Amino acid sequence: AVVSTQSTGGQVACYDQAKQTVMGLGMGDNMATHFLSSFVAGTVATALTQPVDVMKTRLMQGTQYNSIVTVFTAILRTEGPMAFYKGFVPAWVRLSPQTILTWVFLERLRILFPPAA
Questions:
Q1: Percent of the residues in the chain that have a pLDDT greater than 70, as a whole number
Q2: Helix %, strand %, coil % for the chain, to 5?
Q3: How far is it, in rounded angstroms, from Cα 12 to Cα 52?
Q4: What is the DSSP track for 52-83?
């Protein structure tokens, strides 16, 4: 549940901010803006969730850890902070296409079905 909450929250917050930033640079409200903004949102969502995913996986793999705190400290001490991002590329490849499609489809649906006045 924690990973899902981080992922969804990261996608929603980052997509809107990225879209505003991209449009502020002079790009219109078009497919390229939606694609670029959702690409950024997928990348940020992966970066937010990967450390928790790594710790959860380590906790589930064995008996050497008895809490998430011990997993966190063990990884940080023995492997360093970048170890929390092991498997980032496969996670990004899994999450980003879904994020891109979700936001691009949502924007298309907003155009096809505008809110009633």
A1: 94
A2: 80, 0, 20
A3: 19
A4: HHHHHHHHHH-SS-SSHHHHHHHHHHHT-GGG
Q: What is the pTM of this model?
A: 0.82
pLDDT tens per residue, range 69-103: 999 999 999 999 999 999 999 999 998 999 999 99
Number of alpha carbons in the 13 Å side-chain half-sphere of residue 43? 7
The Cβ of residue 104 has, within 10 Å, a number of other Cβ atoms equal to 15
For residue 65, give the 3-state DSSP assignment. coil
Q: What is the pLDDT of residues 60-71, one digit of tens each?
A: 887 788 888 999
| Count of other CB atoms within 10 angstroms of residue 3 | 15
3-state secondary structure of 62: coil
- Tokens matching residue 30: 């078009």
Opening angle at CA 33, ends 28 and 110, nearest 5: 85
Is the CB of residue 17 less than 8 Å from the CB of residue 67?
no
